[in-house]
Automatic annotation (TrEMBL):
A family per Pfam: Thioesterase
Class of enzymatic activity (EC top level): hydrolase
InterPro entries: AB_hydrolase_fold, TEII, Thioesterase
Domain (Thioesterase) ranges: 49-121
Gene Ontology molecular function terms on file: fatty acyl-[ACP] hydrolase activity
Domain of life: Eukaryota
Family of this protein: Belongs to the thioesterase family.
Protein name: oleoyl-[acyl-carrier-protein] hydrolase
EC number: 3.1.2.14
GO biological process: fatty acid metabolic process; lipid biosynthetic process
Length: 138
């Protein structure tokens, strides 16, 4: 926990194009956005995007299914963490900075074209805001 007399922790984000994630198989490739953000019901006509963050230990499917029952103006995306669901072959995240970099880089193309909001676990959203420089409707 930070005290008032301590400076707030900030860091420079590494440009997405120069980052490299090593997968367990040893391939030098970045995970695809579809691996990181689950959007079961794509809606190109949507005017708004809801970006959901599951609780720690949770999966993306709980929120991704919401896209089936939402209004036509909404598209739902849900974070899929390493070591879970289709990313089960990847090791669990052990470095919060690396995880934030991965999420922020995958998030950029998802949110660049339409208004969006974050929904979900407050801690992960706070980390993205503080360390990743990401902000939205709060």
């Amino acid at each position: 926990m930070e005290r008032e007399d301590q400076p707030k922790r900030t860091r420079q984000a590494t440009p997405c194009a120069t980052r490299l994630f090593l997968h367990p198989q040893g391939s030098d490739t970045l995970p695809l956005n579809e691996d990181i953000f689950n959007c079961l019901y794509k809606n190109p006509e949507a005017t708004f995007k809801l970006i959901c963050f599951p609780w720690l230990g949770g999966g993306s499917i709980h929120f991704a299914r919401w896209g089936q029952d939402t209004h036509d103006s909404l598209e739902v995306h849900s974070l899929r963490l390493p070591g879970r669901e289709s990313r089960v072959e990847e090791p669990f995240a052990s470095d919060i900075s690396q995880l934030v970099d991965e999420v922020v880089c995958a998030l950029q193309p998802v949110i660049q074209d339409k208004p969006f909001a974050f929904f979900g676990h407050r801690y992960l959203i706070s980390v993205l805001k503080d360390f990743g420089g990401v902000s939205s409707i709060w």
